[in-house]
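Need a sequence for this fold. Nothing fancy.
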């Protein structure tokens, strides 16, 4: 049963929301807890969704977005928090899944008072939910939230944080790509392979650096001319094409979507010439229902590395803050994405299913196996 708690208007410490201890994991069962956070003084309107604490504290970022309605915000929080359960489980973290959304325009409405009020609501959950950056929130915002709660990661380095998570996100994509190469071509080396990167923002830019260092040929595209110009100044040897359509039709070995979600729709999959898809973008599959894009990729012989595994380097990086951030330890954990990717691709091949389905199955198995042996205690990692 989903627990709904609607705290009253402004108080110094937000009311403590009710919760239930999780039982055996059932992906169809629903969320453990949903909390509505309202603070009249600061204008805060937020929703925190805790999907599962079977593996540990529910970790997931806070999205600040001008939703058209509260129902839209709730739907996003529920969807994203469930995704974090699977991401954290498949990444091998002892963390559950949660997500929060703040309703509003972050460019106009964000304030210290609002962020601190939000931090008090996070604190009221006693550690069941740990927040981090997401769309519309940044490292500096996490530092402000940290003034009210310790249950926040993605802080700046002066505040004991990991800093920009793009560093290990890009490294994780590169690591997973090497595992895909081993699966498809029998070698982890990407030397001489042609990789198309769609989106060269922070993560895409860093990924290109890893690929060039590994001896790959790189072709890129981005809707931002400024992003392409920055990349060309650092790496003048990359080739640039005009638009994603041109990129997916190019002679690629690997296609790396690193921009917006929905990158793999029916038309793109039919046009794609690459043997591997491995990129950092979230929610790449435009249709992930049975018989949808995952199965069409499988039919076409294209190896798809599930996005929520491939891009989990960032959450691994910030989660390390819970132990006192050490970059080398976090990087070592991200290196394990190689074995995790191998396991997904092997399971998919053995069962004749898409890697997307195999990834879900492996995540659910870990949650069920490990989660059922845990004694639930509030705030326990």
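Here you go.
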């Amino acid at each position: 049963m989903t627990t709904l708690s609607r705290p009253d208007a402004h108080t110094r410490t937000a009311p403590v929301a009710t919760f239930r201890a999780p039982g055996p994991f059932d992906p169809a069962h629903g969320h453990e807890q949903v909390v509505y956070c309202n603070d009249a003084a600061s204008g805060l309107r937020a929703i925190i969704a805790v999907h599962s604490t079977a593996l540990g504290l529910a970790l997931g970022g806070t999205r600040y977005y001008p939703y058209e309605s509260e129902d839209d915000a709730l739907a996003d929080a529920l969807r994203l928090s469930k995704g974090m359960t699977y991401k954290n489980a498949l990444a091998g973290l002892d963390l559950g899944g949660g997500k929060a959304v703040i309703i509003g325009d972050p460019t106009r409405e964000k304030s210290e008072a609002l962020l601190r009020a939000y931090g008090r609501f996070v604190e009221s959950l006693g550690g069941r939910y740990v927040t981090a950056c997401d769309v519309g929130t940044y490292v500096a915002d996490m530092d402000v939230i940290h003034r009210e709660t310790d249950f926040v990661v993605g802080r700046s380095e002066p505040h004991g944080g990991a800093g920009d998570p793009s560093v290990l996100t890009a490294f994780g994509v590169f690591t997973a790509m090497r595992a895909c190469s081993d699966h498809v071509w029998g070698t982890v080396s990407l030397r001489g392979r042609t990789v198309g990167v769609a989106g060269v923002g922070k993560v895409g830019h860093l990924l290109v650096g890893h690929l060039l260092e590994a001896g790959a040929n790189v072709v890129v595209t981005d809707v931002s001319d400024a992003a392409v110009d920055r990349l060309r100044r650092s790496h003048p040897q990359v080739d640039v094409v005009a638009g994603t359509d041109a990129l997916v039709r190019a002679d690629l070995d690997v296609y790396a979507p690193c921009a917006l979600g929905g990158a793999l729709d029916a038309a793109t999959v039919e046009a794609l010439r690459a043997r591997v898809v491995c990129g950092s973008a979230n929610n790449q599959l435009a249709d992930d229902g049975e018989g949808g894009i995952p199965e069409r990729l499988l039919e076409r012989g294209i190896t798809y590395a599930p996005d929520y595994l491939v891009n989990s380097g960032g959450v691994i990086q910030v989660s390390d803050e819970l132990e006192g951030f050490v970059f080398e330890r976090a990087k070592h954990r991200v290196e394990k994405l190689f074995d995790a990717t191998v396991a997904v691709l092997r399971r998919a091949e053995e069962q004749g299913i898409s890697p997307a389905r195999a990834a879900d199955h492996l995540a659910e198995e870990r949650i069920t196996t490990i989660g059922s042996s845990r004694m639930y205690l509030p705030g326990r990692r």
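For context: The chain is about 40% helix and 15% strand.
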